[in-house]
Amino acid sequence: MTDNFDLNKRFRVIREIVDLNQADFAGKLGYKQSTISKIENNKTPVTDDIINEIHSVFQISKVWIKTGKGSVYHFDPNDDESLIEYLKNTFSLTDRDITFIFKFLGTEPLNREILYKLFDDNSLK
Q1: Residue 60 backbone phi and psi in degrees, to 5
Q2: CA-to-CA distance for 47 and 36, rounded, in angstroms?
Q3: Which residues face 77 on adjacent strands?
Q4: For 70, left (φ over 0), alpha (ψ -120 to 50), or beta?
Q5: pLDDT value of position 81
Q6: What angle do CA 15, 65, 47 make, to 5 degrees?
Q7: DSSP per residue, the chain
Q8: What is the mean pLDDT of each run of 10 residues along the chain (125 residues)?
């Protein structure tokens, strides 16, 4: 197996990690679904442009994409900006969603329990 084969294999793993089909993954990266398919089937190499786009959109580590070594995600959990961008891009969150998350995190534990009960009782579907 060549390094290119492993890189193309990791490319598919990334798509599975972010839980997107080829068409949706392609759309988020600004490519055609056929390009994604060719990469996953080792018919087209993974270019630096695609690696940079994956890093930018999904905060996946460039080192992990290229080598499979280190952490998959490239963000510092202590860096709010990096974490916010990761959450926004990975889960298609709006600024309102992010505000809600931070307000939730700033809520007293007893009030969090009330919110958990609300979500559990209403079984969000």
Answers
A1: -85, 135
A2: 12
A3: none
A4: left
A5: 67
A6: 90
A7: --HHHHHHHHHHHHHHHTT--HHHHHHHHT--HHHHHHHHTTSSPPPHHHHHHHHHHH-B-HHHHHHS-S-SB---TT-HHHHHHHHHHHHT--HHHHHHHHHHHTS-HHHHHHHHHHHHHHT--
A8: 68 89 94 95 92 88 83 64 73 85 85 85 61
**Collapsed DSSP state (helix, strand, coil) of residue 1:** coil
Which pLDDT does position 39 carry in this prediction?
93
Region(s) of the chain under CATH 1.10.260.40? 3-67
The CATH class that applies to domain 3-67 reads mainly alpha
* Cα(48)–Cα(80) distance, integer angstroms: 27
At residue 88, the pLDDT reads 79
Strands (E), the chain: none
Structure tokens of 54?
């994956």
- Given this model, what pLDDT does residue 51 score? 92
